[in-house]
Amino acid sequence: MKCIIVEDEFIAREELKYFIKNFSNIEIAGEFEDGIEVLKFLQNNKIDVIFLDINIGSVDGIVIAKNLSHFSEKPYIVFITAYKEHAVEAFEIEAFDYILKPYEESRIKSMLKKLELSYNSKNGELHTITNRINLFKNDKIIVTNIDDIYYCEAKDRETCVLTKNEEYIVKMPISEFYETLSKEMFFKCHRSYIVNLTKIKEIIPWFNNTYNLRLKDIPKEIPVSRSNVKNFKQIMNI
Asked: What CATH number belongs to 132-236?
């Protein structure tokens, strides 16, 4: 996974380099202070991530990001800026993240972890072993059996993964995480929930011809939304 840093403040650039080198496996392929030089570089070089300041020389970061949106293989864009007011525009052009200066170590580490998870998922590397998955808790990688997952719940732009006794966070949206799971075992029954079909103990009829799912071993009921009822009934032979 290769990145470039586009930042004209030396101290901020060095600090970001420190975090990338010490808390990720991302390779730094270049550093730039000028927007024109960035665009020239990108014409002949493929990168996976661009850490992009907004206020830089020649061409500002928003313009560079808009140019990147036309690439056939668009890199992840992480804005690094001291200004909050560009956040809405940044996410309108599908920025991966928006980091404010001065940097907070926990925020940077979280972002880097989320980047690597998303990249590995996109490239089919999230499941290093067929029946296992790497989950994160307290900055540790926990190798977990797929069978141990009971359900997953959306938490803003992250996913909470629940086993019988533990709770983990995956730094990607639930719809993206769902694509990494076996569809024979897991079903996205609601926009905010994924359920392990093997953990269902009871199927309870609910309002508007929907269902609630009661799981084994834990006191949790998972809703099945109306839009997913038909597929759920087919899967469960109801």
From this structure: 2.40.50.1020
